[in-house]
Design brief:
By secondary structure, the protein is mostly helical. The protein has 3 helices and no strands. Helix 1 packs across helix 3. The chain starts with 17 loop residues before the first helix and ends in a 20-residue tail after the last helix.
């Protein structure tokens, strides 16, 4: 599966279950992790790769990625509480 935006090659979503499916999702999640760590949202990653929002979320979870809180950062640099 080739991304329409970047031309990057992505494997088709796996429908496998069990250990084999989890390993494939973790491998995809490890490829997605740098994009997420650089600040891209799940929706942006989904649009760029052609995967669904839920599949991106699942793959990142299988890769052990700590998810950010929901919503945008409306006040960057502001300390909420100490």
């Amino acid at each position: 599966m080739t991304s329409e935006l970047t031309g990057e090659e992505w494997p088709p979503p796996t429908r496998r279950r069990g250990e084999a499916g989890n390993a494939e999702k973790a491998a995809i999640g490890r490829r997605l992790k740098p994009k997420y760590d650089d600040g891209m949202s799940l929706r942006q990653i989904a649009q760029e790769t052609g995967y669904s929002y839920g599949y991106v979320h699942t793959c990142l979870g299988h890769a052990g990625v700590k998810m950010r809180d929901r919503g945008s950062n409306k006040f960057p640099g502001r300390v909420v509480s100490l």
